[in-house]
Specification:
By secondary structure, this protein is an alpha+beta fold. It is 51% helix and 15% strand. The chain has 11 helices and 10 strands. A 4-stranded mixed sheet has the order 1-4-5-8. Strands 2-3-7-6 form a 4-stranded antiparallel sheet, with no helix packed on it. The longest helix has 37 residues. The two termini are 37 Å apart. The protein binds flavin-adenine dinucleotide (FAD). Flavin-adenine dinucleotide binds next to strand 1, strand 3, helix 10 and helix 11. Its cofactor is FAD. Belongs to the acyl-CoA dehydrogenase family. GO terms for molecular function: acyl-CoA dehydrogenase activity; flavin adenine dinucleotide binding. Keywords: FAD, Flavoprotein, Oxidoreductase.
């Protein structure tokens, strides 16, 4: 058993960190204020090929694994870019996995390269206002009419829809009452984002202002039939296939942000003198930070375990859910502890940790809540009755 990164993995981390170092705290604070998408950061990563880290080589990527992608995402988040930086590229890195796995050769050739090279941006639309985490109940309808599908309905929380050229969309093609089981009847599409037919309304939110999240309203939105991924009615299965690695990547982002917060707080605690000594000399400051580091490090080990299982083709549901749960909680705890270690200054934007605290709610809540991660473990690992 070896817990070390390989030389190649270390080189990946260092190369991504070197790009991120060009975007300092002032850059991310400015994006938090003005809400502008970090285009230059996105372009810098695209130029050096990092958006295609796990896209197959035949389609313009590096063909590496989720382990390497997790390293990239942790490094971005930990650099100070936080969830703003991570979310700006997240979908390019892994979002088109269902196309890579279930798409035809023609679709892969057409769809993967522009995303891997950063020439196109996309959004991923699953969540609906009245469905929540119960994905099988999705209602947005896509009805086949000849060689196209016509879509009507609503989605919510869809990130990067203001910027997107494309949309990966999960829609109901057979009404729920007519399917043999609730996981059937949903279909997956990857298609052009037609702003004449999809109205986008931004949701004003707590953090990550520069990466928008939106309500989408579809009105007679047409999708060419050749943009259906895989078979009609099996979209839920295709999405499930990508859920574990997505959880791993989000967990890596949470660990990165948490580690950043802890290192910020430790630095501040060494410099801040109160009662004639650094506040970091007090165990009441030291111990919570040390505990956060230990929790984050443990979560990271679980991220690597889950990523390694996925990359070796092993079942990784338990490890991926455990990693997502542990990293979300540890990341949150670290950011909160970092604010408290800064005292009043933790509440000031110029010390950055309040921004991390606002952003770390994202990997805690999405794409699946801590409660549902625990429900998965209770049911699938402990064999307890399904509770939902
Ligand atoms: C910033 C941000 C960006 C996002 N980006 C995207 C995106 O790009 N695309 C996309 O499709 N979605 C996106 N989402 C949506 C996100 O995936 C959902 O918010 C998340 O899946 C939770 O769904 P919900 O908000 O409807 O919660 P609900 O399902 O309404 O749940 C609310 C609460 O109830 C709890 N709960 C519900 N049922 C149970 C149960 N049976 N047992 C125990 N607890 C339960 C949940 O754990 C949660 O705490 C984003 C969300 C945020 C906040």
């Amino acid at each position: 058993m070896n817990f070390e990164l390989t030389e190649e993995q270390e080189a990946i981390r260092d190369a991504v960190a070197a790009i991120c170092a060009r975007f300092d705290d002032d850059y991310w604070l400015a994006r938090d204020r003005d809400g502008e998408f970090p285009h230059d950061f996105y372009d810098a990563l695209a130029r050096e090929g990092w958006l295609g880290v796990c896209t197959p080589e035949a389609h313009g990527g590096a063909g590496l694994g989720i382990t390497e992608a997790a390293l990239v995402m942790r490094t971005i988040s930990e650099s100070g870019a936080g969830m703003t930086g991570a979310s700006s590229v997240h979908i390019n890195i892994f979002g088109l996995n269902p196309v890579a796995v279930f798409g035809t050769e023609e679709q892969k050739a057409r769809m993967l390269r522009p995303m891997a090279e950063g020439r196109e941006k996309a959004c991923f639309a699953v969540t609906e206002p009245n469905t929540g985490l119960n994905t099988t109940q999705l209602k947005l309808r896509a009805i086949r009419q000849g060689d196209k599908y016509v879509v009507n309905g609503q989605k919510v929380w869809i990130s990067t829809a203001q910027e997107a050229d494309r949309i990966l969309l999960l829609a109901r093609t057979t009404p729920l009452e007519e399917v043999e089981k609730p996981t059937r009847g949903l279909s997956l599409f990857y298609t052009r984002f037609d702003r004449d037919r999809i109205r986008v309304r931004e949701i004003e939110k707590m953090g990550r202002k520069a990466v928008d999240s939106n309500e989408l309203f579809f009105d007679e939105f047409e999708i060419p039939a050749e943009d259906l991924i895989g078979e009609e009615g099996r979209g839920f299965e295709y999405i499930l296939h990508g859920m574990n690695p997505e959880r791993v990547l989000i967990a890596a982002e949470a660990v990165g942000l948490g580690m950043l917060a802890v290192s910020r707080a430790a630095k501040y605690a060494k410099e801040r003198i109160v009662f004639n000594r650094p506040i970091g000399q007090n165990q009441a400051i030291q111990h919570p930070l040390a505990k956060c580091w230990a929790e984050l490090e443990a979560a990271w080990m679980m991220v690597l375990a889950a990523a390694s299982q996925y990359d070796r083709g092993l079942p990784c549901g338990a490890a991926a859910n455990a990693a997502k749960y542990l990293a979300g909680e540890a990341g949150f705890s670290a950011c909160e502890t970092a604010v408290m270690a800064h005292g009043g200054f933790g509440y000031a934007k110029e010390y950055h940790v309040e921004r991390y605290l606002r952003e770390v709610f994202i990997p805690r809540i999405a794409p699946i809540s801590p409660q549902l991660c625990l429900s998965y473990l209770a049911e699938r690992v402990l064999g307890l009755p399904k509770s939902y």
